[in-house]
Hints:
The complex is a heterodimer. By secondary structure, chain A is an all-beta fold. Chain A has strands at residues 3-6, 11-14, 19-26, 32-38, 45-51, 56-59, 62-67, 72-77, 86-93, 98-100, 104-109. In chain A, the strands form 2 sheets. In chain A, strands 2, 4, 5, 9, 10 and 11 form a 6-stranded mixed sheet that branches. In chain A, strand 4 and strand 5 (45-51) form a beta hairpin. The radius of gyration of chain A is 13 Å and the shape is globular. In chain A, 34% of the residues are buried. Chain B has strands at residues 5-7, 10-13, 19-24, 31-38, 42-50, 53-57, 64-68, 74-78, 87-94, 102-103, 107-111. Chain B is built from no helices and 11 strands. The mean pLDDT of chain B is 94. Chain B is mainly β. In chain B, strand 9 (87-94) and strand 10 (102-103) form a beta hairpin. The chains are: A mainly beta, B mainly beta. The A-B interface holds A 31-32, 34, 36, 41-46, 49, 51, 89, 93, 95-103 and B 4, 33, 35, 42-45, 48, 55-56, 58, 88, 90, 92, 97-106, 108.
Amino acid sequence: xxxxxxxxxxxxxxxxxxxxxxxxxxxxxxxxxxxxxxxxxxxxxxxxxxxxxxxxxxxxxxxxxxxxxxxxxxxxxxxxxxxxxxxxxxxxxxxxxxxxxxxxxxxxxx
Amino acid sequence: xxxxxxxxxxxxxxxxxxxxxxxxxxxxxxxxxxxxxxxxxxxxxxxxxxxxxxxxxxxxxxxxxxxxxxxxxxxxxxxxxxxxxxxxxxxxxxxxxxxxxxxxxxxxxxxx
Lengths: 110, 112
């Protein structure tokens, strides 16, 4: 069955450093991969989408890579700030049905 | 522009009752999907509607149903509530499959 894995342990980093979050998947051939940010008690907020034929996408301090051979996506936040502290979810989409990972909590310490 | 609006924000129901949740998508978005989020299972897809038609359905029992109106507003209904239905129910709208989803703030349902 399709499986998406994100680190269940929280990622703790110091302000100013680069945070790197991982999303691995199996038994899936997604057309798109998306990353979302979720704050407690709120709905996820869309950050970036990358297509299967794209290797990398950037938006301001955010960068996403997508390796369909390794079946992995990396999500980077450069010059991280305490305001970046949240849970980050990856989502794979094939035919209109997105599958979300459980998310990784990022904590940026001042 | 206005985001995705979900009502109510909080709801407490008793086992065996039924509940209806409402979602107003972003203007112009014809796709509306619903999700259940729990600490144990994460974010799980319930169903998706496009132009008043259910286009996809997740792996949930028939007690979970939904519909979409001609103005793209959507409702979901859960009948014969069980304690395990306690969750954050999220609605998301989308312009197209490659534009990402805009989520509402959700309805927190507690079944007692």
